[in-house]
Amino acid sequence: MSRIGKRPVTIPGNVKVNIIGQTVTVEGPKGTLSRTLRPEVSVAIEDGTLFVTRAGDDKDERSLHGLSRTLVANMVEGVTNGFTKSLDLVGVGYRATLQGRKLVLTVGYSHPVEIDPPQGIEIAVEGTNKVHVKGADKQLVGDIAADIRSVRPPEPYKGKGIKYAGEVVRRKAGKSGGKKK
Fold this sequence. Notes:
Helices cover 20% and strands 38% of the residues. It is built from two helices and 13 strands. It has helices at residues 59-80, 138-151; strands at residues 9-10, 16-20, 23-28, 31-36, 41-46, 49-54, 83-90, 95-99, 102-106, 113-115, 121-126, 130-135, 161-164.
C-alpha cells in the first residue's frame, strides 16, 4: 500500500470539506478550492479526517493513490494557511514595484514588464528587489512564481536575473584572458 496514500488528512475545525462524486471542494478562511479526482481513487470523511482509498492494486492506481492524497492535503493546507513563494531580483537597476494589483518589473529591457496576477493570487513587494507570491492554490502560486522568474532567469556568469529565494545559481568562470598565438 502507498505509504503517502494511506496517511489520513486531518481537517481543521475552520475548514469545510464537501465531496460530490469525484469532486472534492474545500472551503476555509483563505478561500475555496475544488478538484475532480480520477475514478481509480475514492475519498471519504470519518471523524474529522479525510481518507483516500484506491480500487485496485495496479501500478497506475498505486501512483494515483499517493498523488490524490497529496493534492487533497495541499488543498486543506492552502485554505488554512496559504502558500508563499519568494523571489529575489539580482542586478544593478533591477527593481519591482506594484501598480494596483499589477507587478511591474524593471530588469534591463527597454521597457518595463507588467504581470497581472489571476484571481486568488496576491503579490507583495518588499523593498525594491524582493517579490512574494501568495495564494491558496499551491500549483497556481508556483506557476505565477515561475512566470515571474522566466522574465529574466539568473545567468551563470554574473548571477544577474530573477531567482527563487534560497536558489543557488552555479557560477561559471569567464574568459581566461590568455594570448592567442
